[in-house]
Amino acid sequence: MSIRNNIFSVAFGIASMTAANAEGLRPLGGTSIDLGGISGIAYYTVERDGFRVVATLAQGVAGTPIRVISVLAPGQRVVLSTPRQSDAVEITRKGDSVVVRKAKATAN
Questions:
Q1: In which domain, by residue range, is 7 found?
Q2: CA 36 to CA 6: how far, in whole Å?
Q3: Distance between CA 10 and CA 47 in Å, rounded?
Q4: How many domains does the chain have?
Q5: Residues with Cβ < 8 Å from 73, sequence gap 6 or more?
Q6: Which residues contact 83 (CB under 8 A, 6 or more apart)?
Q7: pLDDT band at 27, cuts 50/70/90?
């Protein structure tokens, strides 16, 4: 296993201690994301322009990780989904907090 995979596995293991069922995150507190065959972690930091949400996802342990970064103002959200899954994860900024919850993916 490469160093990159070891780091991702450890980070995912730590983040797996919390679930993504409409929970509020704390800054730098991670939560797990499960989109079927794609999974990973998400966390946020407080920046001058908004809350910087970072989600790192991969397909299994051997998949190449991808990172999605979004800066959210109050009331904004980002939805993560895959084309083959009907489930999605919605990350929403509500005032001074960030909430992660399962959501239904919508077709565009």
A1: 3-104
A2: 21
A3: 26
A4: 1
A5: 50, 93
A6: none
A7: confident
**CB atoms closer than 10 angstroms to residue 90:** 18
HEC sequence for the chain: CCHHHHHHHHHHHHHCCCCCCCEEECCCCCEEEEECCEEEEEEEEEECCEEEEEEEEEECCCCCCEEEEEEECCCCEEEEECCCCCEEEEEEEECCEEEEEEEECCCC
* pLDDT higher at 13 or 73: 73
Mean pLDDT of the region 69-80: 95
Question: Checking DSSP bridges between strand 50-59 and strand 31-35, what pairing results, if any?
Answer: unpaired
Q: What is the pTM of this model?
A: 0.72
